[in-house]
Structure prediction request, 119 residues.
Amino acid sequence: VQLAESGGALVQPGGSLRLSCAASGFNFDDYVIGWFRQAPGKEREFVGSISWNSGNTYYAESVKGRFTISRDNAKNTMYLQMNSLKPEDTAVYYCTSVVAGTTSPFGSWGQGTQVTVSS
Prediction:
């Protein structure tokens, strides 16, 4: 199982960014998958998740209305569109499988991608 996050960058407050998560080594479209993030000195936290058929998405309150998760099962890729970014969104972002109906991760972690929101 391999997960590879990409797309992180330095962006100004109020800006936008799109992250990608490329998966391989498992049946991608069988799983709920999601995004997590870890800011310096803090524990890793749930950002959002998407069901196998994209029919259901779920977001942490801190990102609801600003972030959108999507997936393309044909490409084994998930995306995180981040708008109206705030300095508190600064973190390393990770993708992984999520236990259905929960915010609990399971399975492998990728190397993460750094998002820095700063002027």
